[in-house]
Fold each of these.
Amino acid sequence: MQLSTTGSGETVYLNGLFLPANEARISPFDRGFLFAHAAYEVTAMYDGRLVDWPGHAARLARTLEGIALPVPVADLEALHIELADRNAMAEGLVYLQVTGGAYGFRDFAGPESLDPSVFMFVSPKALIGAAARDGIAAVSLPDTRWRRRDFKTTQLLSQALAYRTAKAAGAQTAFMHEDGTVTEAASANAWIVTAEGTLVTRDLSTDILHGITRAKALSLLNPADVSVEERSFSLEEVRGAREAFTTSAGAIIAPVIALDGAPIGDGQPGPVTRQVQRLYYEAMGADVASVAPWATP
Amino acid sequence: MQLSTTGSGETVYLNGLFLPANEARISPFDRGFLFAHAAYEVTAMYDGRLVDWPGHAARLARTLEGIALPVPVADLEALHIELADRNAMAEGLVYLQVTGGAYGFRDFAGPESLDPSVFMFVSPKALIGAAARDGIAAVSLPDTRWRRRDFKTTQLLSQALAYRTAKAAGAQTAFMHEDGTVTEAASANAWIVTAEGTLVTRDLSTDILHGITRAKALSLLNPADVSVEERSFSLEEVRGAREAFTTSAGAIIAPVIALDGAPIGDGQPGPVTRQVQRLYYEAMGADVASVAPWATP
C-alpha cells in the first residue's frame, strides 16, 4: 500500500533506444540532473489502453512550453504503447521524463536551442488495489513547492520529503497547505465531502497541478447526483469532512480516511468516494462488479 | 562574460571513481534526476587553495540534514584537492553534488536509509575577470523558487529560466523579487549602495541562500569605513541606488551596472563595490595591484 512507489519493468526507453533498466545511463551533466530542468508525466494503462492520454499529452506540451523545453520529435503515444508491449504490460503506469539534455558542461542558461533527453519506463501494477478499497492515511504539512505548480516538473523535493514524513508517521500521503488552505496531496489532487455533503476540490491556478484524473472525474459527475464546488478549503474543513479522497494517475481515486491520526468522517471510505471510483473505473472500461465489488452501491 | 557557465575539466569524480568527463554516467533512476533530491556546492579555488571551504562544508551539512540526505563517507575536502590536482587546476571552481542515490525504481519516499551518489567536476577559469572589472547587466523577474532557499539544492529550474530570460535580453543576471522586495540575484546574493551611501544586503532567512561569499564579504567590512544594513530592499531602491553588485563563489563580487536596461548610478562599478572587491581579493591571497588594478583606490 505504498502509493509513492513505482517499480520498473525490465525494459526502459532512453533517447531512441530500448534497453535493460539496469543498463540505462545518462550523463551527470544532463540538465535534468543539474537543474531539475525537466518535465514528466505518468500515464495509466488499463486493459492494454492508455488512460486519458490526450490530457497527459496536452499538459506535457504546456509544461514544456512553460519551462522552455522543445517538444521531442519522437511519437510519444506510440512509444508508450511500444514500451508497454515490450514489457508485456497490459495494466500499470508509464513514466515519461523530458529534460533539457546534456552538453558536457554546466550552464544555467544553456544553449539557445536545446536537444532534449527522453527517458521512459513502465511499472506493471494493479491500478485498483487495496488502497482504493481500504483507504489511506494522510499527514498535514506546509506546502513548500515553487510557484508554478501547474507545470509538471521534476522539482519534486517537497513531495519526496512529504512522503518520507508521511511514511515515518505510518501514513501514505500528505495534505499540503499554504496560507490556511489545502493545496494538494503529496502527488495528487485533494478532495473532500463537506459536512453539508458538497464535494469540493481546489480550483485551478498556478498553485496546484492541473490533474488529468481530477478533470476526468469532474467531467463524469452528474450535478443532479452531487453538488460540486471548485474552491479552496481549509485543514479544518478536512477535519470536519464526511469524506476525503485524492485523484492521481497512479492511484486513481484513493479514499483518505484519516488526517494526522484522527479519522475523517467515520474512518471508512464513504459513499461519494465510492460513486466517483465507480464512475471512473467504468470510464476506464473496468468491470466494476468484478474488480471493485466494494465500489458497487 | 557568461557568468552562468562552468565548463568541465577532463577528469570528473563519480561515486568513488575518477574518470573522463565524457564517460561519466549515472542511472536515470537516481533521485537527483527523478526528484531533484540533491544538494550541491560550488567552491572556488585560488592559487591552489580552496576559498572558504569550512563555510561550504558547513552549509552542505546543513542542506543534507534539511533534505534528509546522509553525509557521504568520503573526505570531501581531500577529494576537492585531488580532483583539482588531477586536472592540474590552480584556479577555478569545484562543483560537488550529493544526491539520494539510485535504486532501480521510482519511489517518492525512498528507502529509509539512503546510499548517496556523489558527483564532482572542476571548471578551470580566471576568477577575477572581465565581469568583475566591467560589471554586468540584470533584468528583474518574479522569484518563483520553493520556500527553503536556505538549502542549496538542485531545484534550480527558476534560476535556469531566469538566466535564459536574462540572456535573451542581453543581460547576465536577474534580480529576483517577491512581495515587493528583492530576494536574490539568479544564483548570487544581491547588494546595493543606497542613495544615502549605505551598503545593504538582504537579511538571512529561509527566503534566500546563506551565501558563503556574502558572509565573508560582510566579515571583511570595517563599519568605520562603510555603513552596512542587512534588510530587505525594493526594486525601486535598486533603481535609485548608487551601486549594486552580487556575491557568489563563482563570480565572487560582480558589479551590477544596469537593471532592465537602465543604468544603476552612473552605469559604472562604484567605489564601495571596488572596496569590497579589493578586500575579498586580498583575503583570497591575490596581488590586487597586479590582477585587479582597477580595484585599487
Amino acid sequence: LRRLKDYGNDKMLLTVRWENGTLILIDQTKLPTRLVYVKYNKYQDVANAIKSLIVRGAPAIGVAAAFGLCLAAFQSKAKSTSGLISDLKVAYARLKSTRPTAVNLAWALDIIMKKATEGTSVDQIRNEILDRSLRMANDDIAINKRIGQNGAQLISKNEVILTHCNAGSLATVGYGTALGVIRAAKDDGKRIQVIATETRPVMQGSRLTAFELTHDGIDVRLIPDTAVGHIMYQDTISRVIVGADRVLKTGHVFNKIGTYQIAALARRHSIPFYVAAPISTFDSKSKLDDIVIEQRDRNEVIKIGNKIIAPQDVKVLNPAFDITPPELITGIITEKCVLKAPYKTNIHKLLNSNR
Amino acid sequence: LRRLKDYGNDKMLLTVRWENGTLILIDQTKLPTRLVYVKYNKYQDVANAIKSLIVRGAPAIGVAAAFGLCLAAFQSKAKSTSGLISDLKVAYARLKSTRPTAVNLAWALDIIMKKATEGTSVDQIRNEILDRSLRMANDDIAINKRIGQNGAQLISKNEVILTHCNAGSLATVGYGTALGVIRAAKDDGKRIQVIATETRPVMQGSRLTAFELTHDGIDVRLIPDTAVGHIMYQDTISRVIVGADRVLKTGHVFNKIGTYQIAALARRHSIPFYVAAPISTFDSKSKLDDIVIEQRDRNEVIKIGNKIIAPQDVKVLNPAFDITPPELITGIITEKCVLKAPYKTNIHKLLNSNR
C-alpha cells in the first residue's frame, strides 16, 4: 500500500491521490453537486482527465501528470531501460499536450523524465519515479501547510476574509494556498468567516471554493462578483487573501480575472490585501510586457451549461487573468516568509536564498 | 388607430406600445434568444405580465400598468361612472400588488385613477384615461430623448463607453436613459463603442443591453463583471454612463449592485463617471439611512436556469442594489440639465425650479 502521508485531517479533500497502484482524482466537473472520486490505471485516461478539466489548478495538474507517467511505466511491457524510456517519451508527449500553457505541467513531467533517465533497470525506474511523484505530492501539501502557518500569524481572532476564485485544496494536491491560510487560522482557534466571490465566468468560487469550505465546515458566504465593492463599503471585510498564477520579480501578480479590481477596492477601503503563493509560482525571468493575457472562449460568457444568456453573435472580451501591481499588495505569503514592499529587493533576496 | 407618436426611428424597440385598443409588450423573458411581442386585451393578463417579468424596468412597468387600467375600463360592462370606478378600483388593486416595491407603478396607477375620478361619463373616463396613458408613454420617450441630448453634448467624437445593467429601451417605454445618451451621441455622428458588463446575478447586461444595442446596430462588447478593473487598467474606457433607481437629495445614487465598484474603479483610473436619470427618479424626502437594501432570492446566485452552480445549502449574500456616493459622480444627466457638484445645492435648485 503506497499512499500519501496523512496530514492529520482525514476529512481533508485530496484532489490527487495514489493508492494501491492507482491514481485517484476528484472529478471536478461533477462539483458542486456530487463529490466523485475516479480511479485511473492508464496514462491515456489521465491525459483525458487533464484535458477535460476533471482535474484543474496548476499544482494539481502537475502532480496528476507525474503519476500519469508512473502509470505509463507500469503499463509498459518493455524489458529494457531503453524500451521503457521510449514508452515513457510517448506518454510524456501525450500528457504534456493536454494543457500546453500550464507551466507546472511541463515542470513536473520534466522532473519525472529526468529521474527516469537516471535509472539502471526497468524495476528501479518504476520505483524511483513513483517515489519522486509521491514526494512531489507530499511536498505540495507540506508547502501549502507552511504557507498556511505563515499566513495564519497575520490573522486576528475574529475575521471576515474575502477570497476570489479557488486557491484551495481543489487547485492543489490538498490544503490549498489562500484557503490553506484560512484553514491554518481556523486550526489555531480563530473564528474565520469567508466571503467567496462566485468568479465569473468559470465560477470557481461558486463551484469549488463554496463547495470545499462547506465540505470542511468553514463558514462561507457566496456573493456575486458585483457585490464586492458594496460589501466593503458596508465595512464587512477585514482582509482579502487570493492565490496567484505567477508572481514577477517586480511583485506584479498575475491571477484570475477580477483579482485586480478587488485589490483596488481593498485599497480604497483600507483593507489589507494578501497573495498566498508558493515560491514555485515566482517567475524570475519574465518582464511585465512579456506576458500575453490570453482571451478565453466566448462561450464561457454567452452560455451557462446549455443555456444561452446573451445574443449569440455579440462580441465578447474574456481575458483569463489580470495584473495586480505591487503597490496594491500588503504582503505575499510564501512557504518561507511573508514578503513585504519593497518587493523587487525582497523577492530578489528570497529567490537567491532559495537557490 | 391609436398609437404612440413615431420618434423618427422605425426600428427603435418599443417596450410598451398601444395599438388598435391593444397593449403590446416585448416579452423580456424570451430575450436574448427571441424578440417576441405579446398582445394584451385584459388587465388581468397585464398584471401577470408584470409579475412574471415579461415587462420590467421601473418606467416601463408604470406605463404598462396605466394601460392595464385602460383595458379594465374597456372590459367593464358598467353603465354608470360609479360602476366603472368600482371596477377600476379592483383592477388598480390587482395591478398594484404585482410589484409592491416599484415606486413608478404606484405613481402611474395613482395618476390614472385620479383622472378617472374626475370623469363625468363612462365614455369620457375611458377616453380621458387612455389619453393620459398615451401621454405618459410619450412623455417617457420625450424625457429620455432630452436626457440623451443633454448627455450627448459631453461626449467626444470617438469614445468607448462602459455601461452596467440595462438603462435602455427595455427598461423604459423606449430610447432609454444611459443608452439614450449613447443613441443620441451616435445620431450626432460620433463613433461610440460600448462595453456592457454582464451584470450578475440577473444578467441584464448580457440578456438585455447586449441584445438591445446589437439590435440597433450599436457597437457593443460584452464583458464579465470581473473584467471591469482590468479593462480600465488597459486604458480602454473613456467614460462610464449608468442609470439610477433612486437619487437622494445629497446626490447619493442607488442603482443595480455593481454600480458602486465601477464608480470607485473609474475614479482610480480618472475616468468620468456619469449617471443618467429623469427627475422622477429623484427622491427629495428619504435620507441615506432610510433606504433598506433588499436582499434578493438566493436562487439567483446558486442556479442559472435549472443548472445548479453552487452547493445548494451554501449561504448567499445577494444585495439588489448599492450606493454610489456623490464624490464619485462626475455628473448626473437629467432632462433639464447635467447636474454637477455640489450636488446638494444643485439638486435642491433643480427640484425647486421643477415645481
